Each structure stands twice: as C-alpha cells, then as structure tokens.
Amino acid sequence: MVGSALIAIFKKDISLAYRQLAELMQPLMFFILVITLFPLAVGPSPDTLQRIGGGIIWVAAILSLLLGMERMFRDDYADGTLEQYILSPTPLYLIVVVKILAHWLMHIVPLFLISPLLALFLNLTMDMYVALMLTLLLGTPLISFVGAIGVALTVGLQKGGVLLALLLIPIFIPLLIFATSAIESASMLLPYHQQLATIASLLLISVALSPMAVAYSLRVSQN
C-alpha cells in the first residue's frame, strides 16, 4: 500500500510539472542563456572558453536548479495536500524522497540532453565532457536533496525564493569547487577519482539525512 501511494505521488508530480510547462522551461532557458552569454562577456577565444567552460556550466546548473526548487513543496502547501501527507499513514520522509526524485528528474534530464551542445559551444574536450557528465550526475541530486531542506524551511514564507538562494548558494560552494576541480584535472589528463569520491560521499550523506530533516521542517512549517 505504501508503494502504490508513493508511485501515485510520483506520477502526480510528473503530470503537474508537464501541465505547468512554462514554469518547467524557465530553469532550462535560464541555464542556456547564462552559458550563451558568458562567451560574449569574456570573449570567443577557444582556450579561454575551454578553461572556464566547466565552471560556467556548473554555476548555471546550480542557479537554474535553485530557480525551480521553490516549487517543490509550494503547491502542496498552498492547496492543503501537504497537511494530508503529514496525516497519511505513509511515512513523510518517503514522500519527501519521491518528491525530490521527481523534481530532480524533471529539471536535470533536460540539462543532460542539452549539455553536449553547450559543451561543444564552450570547446570542451571529450575528457572534460565525461568529467562534466559524471560530476553533474553525482552533484545535481546532492543539490536537490540539500536544497529541499531550505525549501521546507521557507515553504510558508511569501516570496521565499530570494531567502532560499541566500541560504543555499554558500552551502553549494564546496560542491562547485570539487566539480570544477575534477573537470580541470580531466583537461590536463590527470585522474579525478578523489573529487568524484568526495562528491559521491556528500551525496550519500545527504540521501541518508536530508529526507528526515525535510520531513521535520515541513511539520514545523505546517504548524
């Protein structure tokens, strides 16, 4: 019964996201615009773009995911569905995991689909592109799980998006450093397993602790 309820919640979030296609496209368009504007600012030199390309994509990915993160629990809070989740027999932390995964899939899959073209646009080598994809695969779920805590804390606030960004951007600086370091190592044909292992360990910690923290924060916000 718990499994069917979680599947139903997952399908509901996916279908609602497709119905609100304009809101769904905003983070993707922001991601594309940020990356395409950077070469205009720093110049079209291939060497320059290659050197900063990984960092540009990662900064754009963090900002675009934060842009769409505010809606993770907003609609459920507004229409009373969140209260029903809290009162339901299904553990709230499992519902939180499902909603985080649905949010991640809806926002990160388009980024993965468009990233090969953007990597070519920024003159990234194949080794840099592989490192970029690996860091995005491990790092973007970390953004969603950690960011969900901030979303839960600010869900009851009017216009909490600015506060959410102020809370979360400093937290993601270590992730940005390790991710760009891995891409830079790949550009020099050096191993970058340590950076990937660090990001993976942070992801596992967030997966273990974040759902419970989010569930507690949602209960506090609902009271």
UniProtKB/TrEMBL annotation:
Gene Ontology, cellular component aspect: plasma membrane
UniProt cross-references to Pfam families, sorted A to Z: CcmB
Any one GO biological process: cytochrome c biosynthetic process
Alphabetical UniProt keywords: Cell inner membrane, Cell membrane, Cytochrome c-type biogenesis, Membrane, Transmembrane, Transmembrane helix, Transport
Record membrane topology: Multi-pass membrane protein
GO molecular function: heme transmembrane transporter activity
Transmembrane segments: 21-42, 48-67, 92-122, 128-155, 162-183, 195-218
Location of this chain's protein in the cell: Cell inner membrane
Highest taxon above the source species: Bacteria
Family the entry assigns: Belongs to the CcmB/CycW/HelB family.
Its job: Required for the export of heme to the periplasm for the biogenesis of c-type cytochromes.
Protein name: Heme exporter protein B
Species: Brumicola blandensis
